[in-house]
Amino acid sequence: MVTSKRVGSRKLNQIVQGVTSKVYGKYGFLNGTLVEDWEKIVGPDYANSISPEKITFPAGKRNRGTLLVKASSHSTSLVFQHIHSYVIDRINTYYGYKAVDKIKVIVGKIDRPARQEAPKKERVLGEIDEKTIEKLVESIDNQELRDSLKNLGRMIYSEDTKDK
């Protein structure tokens, strides 16, 4: 009897995927990519308030499943019901076939770690840039509009200096 042993190294994602696919498979997620890439699929606004929980498929099939999602509140659930066909299209496009046919929404606490946003850097401009901005808006009579345009100018100029 000949057994083949793999000699050499394997990629970490191959090892991890072998372990996680069993866990995700228990909940119907084919390989966990739907859960891992949920934010890419539905966008950051919905990813923080709606979480995929489970996919159930018809007996013997791996398509036209029903996705169970958990919404953080009743109002979120109601809003999600209006966009669920869009989400189904996004999921099916993501998988490349009609993996999901329906979405069922339940309401409950979402166990998702909160994203930490990077601290905003203060925009510091040089004296020349400040004078240029002042010169560009000096002819505007409305003080509120002038201040808004100054702020916009500071953002634009600081973006230019950030890329250099």
Mean pLDDT: 77
How large, in whole angstroms, is the Cα Rg?
Answer: 25 Å
- Spatial strand order of the main sheet: 1-2-3
CATH third-tier fold name of the largest domain: GMP Synthetase, Chain A, domain 3
Secondary-structure element string: HHHHEEHEHH
Number of domains as seen in the coordinates? 2
* Residues in β-strands, percent: 5-15%
Question: What's the architecture of the largest domain, going by CATH?
Answer: 2-Layer Sandwich
Shape: elongated
How many DSSP helices? Answer: 7
User: Under the CATH scheme, which class of the largest domain?
Assistant: Alpha Beta
Helix/strand/pairing category: alpha+beta
Largest sheet: 3 strands, mixed
Low-confidence stretches: none
Distance between the termini: 64 Å
The amount of helix comes to 40-55%
Question: Would you count the extended β strands for me?
Answer: 3
Overview of this protein structure:
The chain is of the alpha+beta class and 164 residues long. It folds into 2 domains: 13-107, GMP Synthetase, Chain A, domain 3; 127-163. 50% of the residues lie in helices and 13% in strands. The chain contains 7 helices and 3 strands. A hairpin with an 8-residue loop joins strand 1 and strand 2. Helix 6 runs antiparallel to helix 7 (143-163). It starts with 11 loop residues before the first helix and ends with a helix.
Keywords:
164 residues, alpha+beta, GMP Synthetase, Chain A, domain 3, 3 strands
